[in-house]
Amino acid sequence: MAKTIIVSNRLPIRIEKEDGQKVYKTSEGGLATGLGSIYKEGNNIWIGWPGISLSHEEEEEVEKELINRNMRPVFLTEHDVDEFYLGFSNQTLWPAFHYFIHHMRFKDEEWEAYYNANRKFADAISKWLEPDDIIWVHDYQLMLVPNMLRKQFPNVTIGFFQHIPFPSYEVFRMIPWRKKLLNGVLGADYIGFHTYDDMRHFLSSCHRLAGYSYERNQILVKNRLVEADSLPMGIDYDKYLESATSQLAKAKEISYRDSLGKQELILSMDRLDYSKGIPGRLQAFDKFLEKYPEYQGRVSLFLIVVPSRDQVESYKALKEQVEFLVGHVNGKYGTINYVPVHFYYRSFPLDDLSAFYRMCKIAMITPKRDGMNLVCKEFIASRENEDGVLILSEMAGASKELSDAILVNPNDENEMVEAIKRALEMPLAEQKRRMKIMQGTVKKYTIFQWVDLFMNNLKDLKERQQSMATKRLDDELKNSITKDFKKAKNPIIFLDYDGTLMPFNENPDDCAPDAELSQILHQLAVKAKVVVISGRKAATLEEWLDEFNIDLIAEHGIKTKRAGAKWEVNGNLQEDSWKNEARDILEFYIQRTPGSFLEEKEHTLVWHYRKVEKGLGDLRSSELSSHLKHFMTNKGLDVIEGDHVVEVKPSVINKGKAAIERLKGEKTDFIMAFGDDRTDEDTFEALPNDALSVKVGSGFSYAKYAVENNEEVRTLLEKFVMEE
Ligand code: GDG
After folding, report:
1. Band of pLDDT at residue 38, cut at 50, 70 and 90
2. For atom 9 of ligand 1, which residue has the closest CA?
3. For 31-35, 90-94, 709-713, which range has the lowest pLDDT when averaged over its residues?
4. Which residues lie below 8 Å from residue 676, measured CB to CB, with a gap of 6+?
5. How confident is the model at residue 615 (pLDDT cuts 50, 70, 90)?
6. For this structure, is 496 an active site residue?
């Protein structure tokens, strides 16, 4: 039976050594809870690192134990952990993705370790993978895994979820291995982010740095439909509510309260991380007590910092900074019976957390950046009496869902100071109104709903891929078409040129046929009528292709030249009086778009933007197209948006009409057409039903079949002319 394989850097269990004995400690994390409903079922498994480096003998023993718990280990050496995890993951990707560019470092050896560790994960997955399994890879430590698997198993179903933000393309582009990282993730079919902005940034990086175009949230990667999506992660609401209303949590609250005194408490709880904005929060609290001294003695900050990555220098420095600030505030405002900041540098069991969520009326969660932030959702779920106030950073993914919090910019100290005052003074009715709305949201979008949605969307996408993939020209079809071609007495083949027979070149004048193509055309012309049907100028086609003794159709059908004969101009053409006006418009866009240029053909005008900065070229081409469409009303012209070109031409002309014209009076028993862009769609659409049509590249098409690129076209044509 097909199974689901969850993959993350850490397993939902960690092994620790106590007095030389291995102890298995389960993780209480949100992800482990949510995915627990999956990996514990049937033959499903979770693959990841168990959190400790072991000897070979120990590894065997641990693997056996983990198999009983539906887990499979990936063993990492201490070197892997230093370079892959603490190094590349946490000192290159983490700071980049959280916009801490001054903390980023780029080390070749750490990149290599990242690659090798990802390979270890991919190998472990391959070891357990069976046909029809679904793989769900988690987070930034494993960005290369999806494509490593895709190369090995082209049809496997892979989902990827990124738990941290995805930065703007301007920041992501700074990483030397950016393209490899993007291609790594694009090996997945369905790619989830917490917010729409993260998704948008990812798509824009794919477009601008890796050259993929996208429509809405979909990208075609080598003919495979890949979808990015925004899917905010939730929590196990009932678990937090139940824990907060348990007798144990209530008893703990009473005992802590007794020791703490009467102060109002503001909860701050994070892992030790510079992205969480802990110093900024302390500084704002300091400012608050200074600006509103009447609150000194009446309110305290309950500051929990959970140890994390403290072998990394920047984290060590952060810890010292936090300790310094705590000391500073306590020294400045503390009295015998007033502690302004209660500071704990350690983790607590859930009952304690629940007691904290109960006893602190205000939670102040003000990260500088956070993918989602689950603590604020847990606080909301734990507020049994629907009171309390959440001060939340607008830089946390959660802020997109929790607009009834007091939202603050964590870099604006004054705003944070005022937010503390507002929270402390918020009337109970207002607190309840806001809290109820937020509870409604957090209760509705739980971790379980998130898991279901992700899995359903992934399966759905796979089905859509399969229905699209029926068009691919596979080997069996290629063989049977080749047989038909060889049997035919009078075959005719229409070939577009650029993108179909030749790859695109930065310089359009540099595309004369190479030796391989020349040989194919020579041989093909002996066995079939060959018609090159292109948007190019007649003179260019003649210079490059006349020697092959084939038919040429230039400028989308304006001029036609039979093999060995002279050029003829299409009889339907009117005067070109529109050209002067259209040229002025194009010149206007050339001035505003560095790198673009005009190509003037006898009966058409073409604006090229292949060399223009990516986003700008797209923007200007759509502006230009709509400008031209407006100008052309009733002028009998067409505007065609091709591959990095916008072309204006008389509408009486198109490749489809030219192809039909060429077929008149022809007694043919095999018609086939190849083309790659919008203009070739006219050919595919116009040809008789029994004609074969092949789209080169990705995208929807009228063609019956699709191949990947011009090399695949050449290979098929070579097959046609090969002697038996
Ligand atoms: C990453 C992204 C995204 C904390 N202290 C204790 C404790 N915790 C638990 C909390 C919460 C979890 O740890 C922290 O989750 P966050 O979401 O706040 O932050 P990250 O660890 O940075 O997680 C983040 C998340 O992935 C999910 O996609 O939201 O943006 O950075 O559940 O309760 N748990 C216990 N004792 C503690 O002392 N038991």
Report:
1. confident
2. 29
3. 31-35
4. 496, 498, 499, 500, 643, 695, 696, 697, 710
5. confident
6. yes
Mean pLDDT, range 465-477, rounded to an integer: 77
Tokens read off for 455: 């899995």
What domains sit in the chain, N to C, each tagged with a CATH number?
4-230 (3.40.50.2000), 237-438 (3.40.50.2000), 471-573+654-721 (3.40.50.1000), 578-650 (3.30.70.1020)
Confidence of residue 603 (pLDDT cuts 50, 70, 90): confident
Asked if 92 contacts 175 with a C-beta cutoff of 8 angstroms, the reply is yes
Instruction: Give the pLDDT of residue 572.
Output: 73
Ligand 1: which residues within 6 Å by Cβ?
28-30, 163-164, 233, 269, 271, 306, 347-350, 353, 370-375, 378
Q: Ligand 1, residues 31, 90, 267, 374: which to mutate, most atoms within 8 A of Cβ?
A: 374
For residues 45 and 41, give the distance between their C-alpha atoms in angstroms, rounded to a whole number.
8
Q: Minimal CA–CA distance to 534: which of 668, 647, 612, 618?
A: 647
Distance from Cα 424 to the centre of ligand 1, integer Å: 26
Spatial distance between the Cα atoms of 377 and 397, rounded to a whole number of angstroms: 11
Atom of ligand 1 nearest to the CA of 165: 30
Q: Catalytic pick from 229, 236, 270, 496?
A: 496
Locate the ligand 1 atom nearest the alpha carbon of residue 398 and give its number. 29
Mean pLDDT of 149-168: 96
Q: What is the pLDDT of residue 28?
A: 65
DSSP-derived secondary structure for 3-53: -EEEEEEE-SEEEEEETTEEEEEE---HHHHHHHHHHTSTT-EEEEE-SS-
Is 100 exposed, middle or buried (CB count within 10 Å of its CB: 0-12, 13-18, 19+)? middle
387-420 tens-digit pLDDT = 999 999 999 999 999 989 999 999 999 999 999 9
Residue 34: pLDDT above 60? yes
The 3-state DSSP composition of the chain as helix, strand, coil percent (nearest 5) reads 50, 20, 30
Closest by Cα among 35, 30, 32, 27 to 4: 35
